[in-house]
Design a protein that fits this description.
This protein is of the alpha/beta class. The protein has one domain: 3-Layer(aba) Sandwich (Rossmann fold). It contains five helices and five strands. Strands 2-1-3-4-5 form a five-stranded parallel β-sheet, sandwiched between helices. The protein is globular. The protein starts with a helix and ends with a helix. The relative contact order is 0.15. The C terminus is likely disordered.
């Protein structure tokens, strides 16, 4: 459970400055979230609840100053793309992805809106950012594994 709380907290910490910088009085901010899980997956529901809780802790309340649109793609790439396009039609202020597959698809669709990824592996090697310490463009986020974090075993390297 601590890992999920950490990820949710980090997500909120990444999202907060983006929303706070753009905050205007009486305007509801919209976040589009595309998850690789099925909606019925307990992990998906736990992550969504943790994200909502963290946003509330930071002063963002659904139905008041925030609208969060969750979409669950169950790792179906065509569905991910369709959901991304649907959410972009709602003019979100921010998009959030939770896997390498979802992030890659959203990155190809989202050009001007900030895109925050959570729980991706090797964001530099995957081409999401050119520099993890100082990402450029509209993409940033949290990696659950970065090769520079430690040595990659020979056995793992041969599978990549």
């Amino acid at each position: 459970m601590r890992r999920r709380e950490f990820i949710a907290g980090l997500s909120g910490a990444v999202v907060w400055p983006v929303l706070a910088r753009a905050q205007q009085r009486d305007r509801v901010r919209r976040i589009g979230v595309v998850m690789a899980y099925a909606e019925s997956d307990p992990n998906a529901q736990m992550l969504a609840a943790a994200f909502r809780d963290e946003m509330q802790r930071l002063g963002w309340f659904e139905g008041n100053n925030l609208q969060i649109d969750f979409r669950y793609a169950a790792d179906d790439q065509a569905r991910i793309r369709a959901q991304a396009i649907e959410l972009l039609g709602k003019s979100p202020d921010l998009m959030v992805s939770n896997s390498n597959v979802v992030t890659a698809i959203l990155q190809s669709e989202v050009r001007t809106i900030p895109l925050v990824f959570v729980s991706v592996s090797d964001p530099e090697g995957s081409g999401f950012v050119t520099n993890l310490a100082r990402p450029t463009g509209n993409v940033t986020g949290f990696a659950n594994f970065q090769p520079s974090m430690g040595p990659i075993s020979h056995a793992y390297r041969s599978k990549v």
